[in-house]
Design goal:
Elements: E1 12-14, H1 15-25, E2 30-34, H2 40-43, E3 52-55, H3 59-73, E4 77-81, H4 85-89, H5 91-99, E5 104-110, H6 126-130, E6 136-139, H7 146-158, E7 164-170, H8 171-175, E8 177-179, H9 185-191, H10 203-215, E9 219-223, H11 226-229, H12 233-243, E10 247-249, E11 264-266, H13 274-282, E12 285-289, H14 295-298, E13 309-314, E14 328-331, H15 334-350, H16 359-371, H17 387-397, E15 403-406, H18 410-418, E16 427-428, H19 439-449, E17 455-460, H20 461-467, H21 470-476, E18 482-487, H22 492-501, H23 518-524, E19 528-532, H24 535-547, E20 553-558
Parallel strand pairs: 2-3, 2-4, 4-5, 5-7, 6-7, 9-10, 9-12, 10-11, 12-13, 13-14, 15-16, 15-17, 17-18, 18-20, 19-20
Antiparallel strand pairs: 1-8
Helix pairs in contact: 1-7, 3-5, 3-19, 10-15, 12-15, 13-16, 17-18, 17-24
């Protein structure tokens, strides 16, 4: 917290000035937003502030930019918008951040205190609307309460299980005078008597977890996004290498354990690798670290990992037993608890305890990896591009530390499967809510947090059309993100389901081959637009995009509409029912 430029205690100022100064003291360097009537008083002191404001074209974009900023920086992203429709436009990113545990602070304007409840112009019950999609929200009714409300917001957003917090500020509260006071840590704690997140794991449970880990013959480290939120990549590596236990990383955890490590099995679940999904299914111990047993991981729950005992480490006590009853539940910060587990395992080994031989288990998994690698059919001569090939060329041409943001759908799964994530905080995506249109604004937020890094957004044509207007923001604000648009002219994932499970009855999934013209659209928004239609054009287009660093770039890859994501576990089935690529069907029996 930055207190170098602290205003003297008792200085008189407006609520709006207090708001902006409070944000400065919370080390906020960027706010994503769009002004309007009720929040207008807060925009005036921004003119004298060190905070950079990014003017979005739609309030949803502000929320997703704040999320992208938080994903790669670990610091709360901040969005500030006005009342009514502006606040309701934030609901989607708030829910997205809530489901994916993203620290975010949303500041919304509200009609004057005297008009609340009168259906005034642009009034809505923002606190009521957002109660179920925020970790905490508050309507501030006095200018004197603003500094405490902001301190509480940042404290709650970043401690325990991270999440979004909303502060609703009536216009007159921003205009009224107040006497400055910056609350101490003790005052913040006293103001939140019921909020005491547990960070330290129970020693007895930690010891029991260590014992079970050394006894297991077929263990799997099931690692979720909570390990990234806890900044636990280093201790995860220590645990994996100490025990030689294979690691699966969920969609939200990609990069927390390097894909190029021999113990990494990649992503499990509905579209996960065969090795990752089958290893979980056949395991005798799942060590769940910051993961929540999402339905996309488990498949049909009554058939999930039937022989596995479960150690479940999570900072949120509500996750314990919510989906799968753990044998050893441990509530606490994932980094701290994993550190304790490592110490306990070492202590047992030093005392002469022998670890069960996991060699045969690893050998079996290696066999699955060899027989069922990720694969796809090569493009027909003169035929459309394969999206996987485009992603592989993007991956191999990317600078070290490149950040990848994705939309939602087939392109999201292909990006997670075919990119090699060897560093944490380089994968930005919408997991729990599955928000189409996430990629472009999230990539902009990520680039604001890490201006030194190359940032690619992998998007589909359906997603692109939802939030592409934010490329105007990127161009005007000189935020040089790069967009890989995989254009198959369909809502691809829905088309895949209709082809496989609805007898090829394609209902309302076809978009258009030539409308819009994405190159012209990109150019009209101040971006460089490039179209790629053949394999020979892929690499030159990527090289050109990578060389442009003064404006956004959109590369449209015209891809094969018939291409499907494999592997795939159909909805309502168990992970034993995984569908492999047609070329691997003859080996399917080897999975048992």
């Amino acid at each position: 917290m930055n207190t170098e430029n602290q205003i003297p205690e008792g200085q008189v100022m407006t609520g709006a000035q207090a708001l902006i100064h409070a944000l400065e003291l919370e080390d906020v360097d960027t706010v994503f937003g769009l002004p309007g009537g009720c929040i207008l008083p807060a925009y005036d002191p921004l003119l004298e502030s060190s905070i950079r404001h990014v003017l979005v074209r739609h309030e949803q974009g502000a929320g997703h930019m704040a999320e992208g900023y938080a994903h790669v920086s670990g610091r709360p992203g901040v969005a500030m918008v006005t009342s009514g429709p502006a606040a309701t436009n934030l609901v989607t990113p708030l829910m997205d951040a809530y489901m994916d545990s993203i620290p975010m602070v949303a500041i919304t304007g509200q009609v004057g205190t005297g008009a609340i409840g009168s259906d005034a112009f642009q009034e809505c019950d923002t606190v009521g609307i957002t109660r179920s999609c925020t970790k905490h929200n508050e309507l501030v009714m006095s200018a004197d309460d603003i500094p405490l409300a902001i301190r509480q917001a940042f404290h709650i957003a970043t401690t325990g299980r991270p999440g979004p917090v909303l502060v609703d500020l009536p216009k007159d509260v921003l205009q009224n005078q107040m006497s400055w006071h910056w609350p101490t840590d003790e005052e913040v704690a006293a103001s939140l008597p019921g909020y005491r997140p547990t960070s330290k794991g129970h020693p007895r449970m930690v010891a029991e977890a260590a014992r079970m880990i050394l006894e297991a013959e077929r263990p799997v480290l099931y690692v979720g996004g909570g390990m990234l939120k806890a900044r636990a990549a280093e201790v995860l590596m220590e645990l994996a290498e100490l025990t030689q236990i294979p690691v699966v990383t969920t969609l939200m955890a990609r990069g927390v354990f390097p894909d190029n490590h021999p113990l990494c099995l990649g992503m499990p679940g509905m579209h996960g690798t065969i090795a990752a999904t089958t290893a979980m299914q056949r395991s005798d111990l799942l060590i769940a670290l910051g993961a929540r047993f999402d339905d996309r991981i488990t498949g049909r729950l009554d058939g999930f990992a039937p022989d596995a005992r479960v150690i479940h480490v999570d900072v949120d006590p509500a996750e314990q037993g919510k989906v799968r009853r753990p044998d050893v539940p441990i509530v606490g910060d994932c980094r701290l608890v994993t550190t304790d587990i490592v110490a306990s395992v070492r202590s047992l080994l030093d005392a002469g305890t022998t670890q069960a031989d996991v060699g045969p288990w690893r050998s079996q998994i290696s066999g699955w990896q060899e027989v069922f690698p990720l694969t796809y059919d090569a493009a027909e001569p003169g035929g459309p591009l394969k999206p996987q090939y485009c992603l592989e060329r993007l991956r191999d041409s990317a600078a070290p530390g490149t950040i990848v943001a994705s939309g939602v759908g087939q392109h999201q799964m292909w990006a997670s499967l075919h990119w090699h994530f060897n560093e944490p905080y380089t994968w930005v995506n919408s997991g729990g809510l599955g928000t189409m249109g996430f990629a472009i604004p999230a990539a902009i937020g990520a680039k604001m947090a890490r201006p030194d890094a190359m940032v690619w957004a992998v998007d589909g044509d359906g997603c692109f059309q939802m939030t592409a207007q934010e490329l105007v923001t990127a161009a005007v604000e000189r935020i040089p993100v790069k967009i890989a648009l995989l254009n198959n002219s369909y809502l691809g994932m829905v088309r895949q389901w209709q082809e496989m499970f609805y007898d090829e009855r394609y209902s309302e999934v076809y978009l258009s081959v030539d409308t819009p013209d994405y190159v012209k659209w990109a150019e009209s928004m101040g971006c460089v637009g490039i179209r790629v239609e053949s394999p020979e054009e892929v690499q030159p287009a990527i090289d050109k995009a990578n060389s442009i660093n003064d404006r956004p770039v959109v590369v449209e890859f015209r891809t094969d509409a018939s291409e499907k994501v494999f592997p795939m576990v159909p909805a309502g089935c168990t992970n034993d029912d995984v569908i492999v690529h047609p070329s691997q069907q003859d080996q399917r029996a080897q999975l048992g």
